[in-house]
Design brief:
By secondary structure, chain A is α/β, with parallel strands linked by helices. The first copy, chain A, contains 12 helices and 14 strands. The radius of gyration of chain A is 20 Å and the shape is globular.
């Protein structure tokens, strides 16, 4: 008899579904492409089928599913689990939680903002013994965050806390996907990095970056990062600018929250870790009060890819009694 | 036999000492000018003498002092109660808590950042039944904040949370007292308002504002506010700019925290309340996600002057068991 947890990471490009035991041993995980353009109903079907299939593939009928946890892009209304106006999913008012509970005939599924899940994963499986106040920041296509404050996940009034990509730090600056100008996400994310590189290329420059895309345009942040790590000066200049903006944004967070630790994750931050770690820390520490700098650690996620699944498990573990125990044959 | 609480608000310009019962009835309160220029030892003497005197004046020897709470400008290391590098007090590393405990021979005195005390006062005596997530913002000479998150005061790693006047929202902008450029405090505080007015006056303009200072220069934020309320267009322009910046700063906070309520206090915000309330709310709500706007209330402090003393009482009430009961004759 196995007792297992299902974790699902709903992303704009892919859906990760995993099954694990309570100690975090991952029995199985699958990826599929998010059929976002086919609409929310289609994607809800993908989520439902993925959960059923991973249970069917890994469980005998008498096994117990202890809980199902879904990580979703935000803004996500909490505790209702409704995706509001998501710039990434391009969805508006999709009640993920209710739909999945209905489709799977389960009375309670936890649906949480993906950044909160990531913060919970880092905290629970990394820093819980050491720290009470942790900020997780993801830098990839977008920028977002999750907080553990006073040892608890902090979600805000409706679950909207952590939209730190939408802190305006350059009024009148570059247009953001959210409609405003000069958001941190608009000047320091992967989207900003690729935009700057493609602007350069349109001016006939950036040949060193183009080499990394085999001449294919537009180039992606991944290719700019590769060129940067290889020493291309134009790529470095673009990354240095993004690091400067990111440093300012993080310094603001430090003065606002005085966290014990900031953990950076996301493909851009992790891909450039060796190049940005030191200058970013310098940028931040120069721009905060001495007291705040003295009590601050800046780290990079070490649980990386597994972060979402372990975060889902952590979400189960902070409130196991709210989840119903359901026999596996219910889903098979 | 009376059981009483002592509350002290240490400000850069004045010290308020009050004595009250556990229901918030204020028996007596006194103000003296902060002898800041005479040094921290002198001011610690003022605090000690003020506490002793108010007990002597209001208590019989058998009365009980339930607790002493001191509100201090920040950055203030918590729980040690050490003023770090305070731009307002111009102090560095002054161990207020230890000094007062030694001088008054009391084993525990709570010393808290004044903005946290204000937030606690608002929460405990105003919104506790309704809200769990509250941000208090003071706009006066400087700008600062205190948070109640998940129903608890949030202080951060060393007590430095809430330095929201030092969120940079205009990189390369006006110089701030903290040394950086473009901090919210440098562009939206009373200091910024008076600076802008005096720049105007130096250019031979701003006569409508000067009328409110009887021609005395430099003019203060209070005089600009008075001119604004009287309809002077130059004063209105200055205030409108400050409101615009303040709206941006608050919108950033809303996207970061998704609070249920924001409460504005401080002389500038309260003095201009009728003029700024509506445009400020519009500015904020236009710049945040719909979900965040839907769940947001913006209010002004209603406990005003009493805020500091009631905040001290609230600080006692959230942890009464940590305070020693001390007979009044100990202080007399």
């Amino acid at each position: 008899l196995q007792e297992l947890i299902i974790g699902v990471d709903l992303g704009a490009t892919k859906i990760l579904t995993g099954i694990m035991d309570i100690d975090g041993n991952i029995l199985d995980q699958t990826w599929i492409k998010t059929g976002r353009k086919l609409g929310s109903q289609y994607v809800l079907g993908q989520l439902t089928d993925g959960i059923k299939k991973i249970i069917k593939d890994n469980c005998s009928p008498d096994d117990v599913i202890l809980g199902i946890v879904v990580a979703s892009p935000g803004p996500l209304a909490w505790p209702e689990g409704i995706v509001y106006d998501s710039p990434n999913l391009k969805w508006s008012m999709v009640p993920i939680k209710r739909e999945l509970e209905t489709r799977l005939k389960v009375p309670f599924i936890a649906v949480e903002h993906d950044t909160n899940i990531a913060a919970l994963g880092e905290y629970y499986f990394g820093y819980r013994q050491q720290y009470q106040d942790l900020i997780y920041i993801t830098v990839s296509t977008g920028i977002g965050g999750g907080y553990i404050l006073n040892g608890q996940v902090y979600r805000g009034a409706r679950g909207g806390a952590g939209e730190l990509g939408h802190m305006v730090v350059k009024p009148g600056g570059e247009r953001c996907g959210c409609g405003r100008q000069g958001c941190l996400e608009a000047i320091a994310s992967g989207t900003a990095i690729s935009r700057e590189a493609n602007l350069l290329i349109q001016q006939g420059k950036g040949l060193g970056i183009l080499a990394f895309s085999q001449g294919k345009e537009p180039v992606s942040a991944r290719e700019v990062a590769a060129a940067c790590l290889a020493g291309d000066p134009e790529a470095r200049n673009i990354i240095d600018q993004a690091v400067k903006h990111l440093g300012l944004g993080i310094a603001n967070l430090v003065n606002l929250f005085n966290p014990e630790i900031i953990i950076l994750g996301g493909s851009v931050a992790l891909g450039l870790k060796d190049y940005i770690a030191e200058p970013l820390e310098n940028q931040v520490k120069q721009q905060v009060f001495r007291m705040h700098a003295d009590s601050l650690q800046i780290s990079f996620s070490s649980i990386g890819q597994e972060n979402a699944l372990l975060g889902c498990l952590a979400r189960y573990l902070i409130g196991p009694s709210t989840f119903p125990r359901v026999k596996a044959d219910h889903f098979i």
